[in-house]
């Protein structure tokens, strides 16, 4: 089959001879992929920033597809069902799944004390192949996937596998109260959607910070928020304090993660020399910009190694920090209703639709931020 193939940092290719996935457990199903996204988190792998990302891995944790084969114990799905597959894999039975913390499942990853299982990510996340392929194996098929309603556009459905749930949970973890000022760091797809979701929780003002003008303009139009380029600010922290009567924002959300720009030392240590789990610049800004007693919500991805974090400021300011991989299965039913009611329009974030054969070009475009790209989607020939 045709699949994306990782050959090392900045090197991916379309492999026409990838092995067809097989049922390995009675609870598995095989899915013919209809849509698969390239995520900003995939770029962390592409740039060589995530440990134990092995040559030959098929990336892709955001995908939807049609069931073509089921294991003997699969009861809720049948061949022909079109399903939305959460990016995180969950068993539905462990102590964490029973708390609806599906992103923290303890049974799907040999390194489960560090994280749960994720499709198409490094072997620290279980080593599962992902959906940037014509076909993919989906473990625990009765647990994670949701059948796509007939009324739902497939482009909307694929955005519900990660982007919208992660953004919604980012806003939810912020504990936003009526009238709050919310600052989102990062105007990628997650950050833009987080800004949109902040209004659903009653925010009174939403601000987004990034360094790319085209993304900021998109965010302004899509999320109806204030947008600022940090390259035009002497100090983003001071700027946010000035906007908030010197108190700081009520909620700050880090939607950037390990590739944050804006600070030379963090860039050198975290992105160039790889001496820490990525650049923590956005996290520094979030902690220092939030008010005393405020909340910092983190959905940006960082490597599982040490990082420079101003923990003294966290303690002295009495800040609450909440962070997690999104528990997609928990929020999908609510988000599907929001799509049906026209409250959110996820597919409007998609700017580029590319055939899977052009996966290398897709990664290059997204990495280099060319052609005003916001969100790329790959379409396999078998779709």
Based on DSSP secondary structure assignment, what is the total number of beta strands? 17
CATH topology of the largest domain: Quinone Oxidoreductase, Chain A, domain 1
Order of helices and strands: EEEHEEEEEEHHEHEHEHEHHEHEHEHE
What's the shape?
Answer: globular
CATH superfamily of the largest domain: Medium-chain alcohol dehydrogenases, catalytic domain
Strand content: 15-25%
Mean pLDDT across all amino acids: 95
Low-confidence stretches: none
Distance between the first and last residues' Cα: 13 Å
The name of the CATH architecture of the largest domain is Alpha-Beta Complex
Domain module count: 2
Count the helices. How many?
11
Derived from helix and strand composition plus strand pairing, the structural class reads alpha/beta
Walk me through what this model shows.
By secondary structure, the protein is α/β, with parallel strands linked by helices. It has 2 domains: 3-162 and 327-379, Quinone Oxidoreductase, Chain A, domain 1, CATH 3.90.180; 163-323, 3-Layer(aba) Sandwich (Rossmann fold). 27% of the residues lie in helices and 22% in strands. It has 11 helices and 17 strands. Strands 3, 4, 5, 8, 9, 16 and 17 form a 7-stranded mixed β-sheet that branches. It has a 6-stranded parallel β-sheet with strand order 12-11-10-13-14-15, sandwiched between helices. A two-stranded antiparallel ribbon has the order 1-2. Helix 3 (163-173) packs across helix 4 and helix 4 packs parallel to helix 5. The chain is globular, with a radius of gyration of 20 Å.
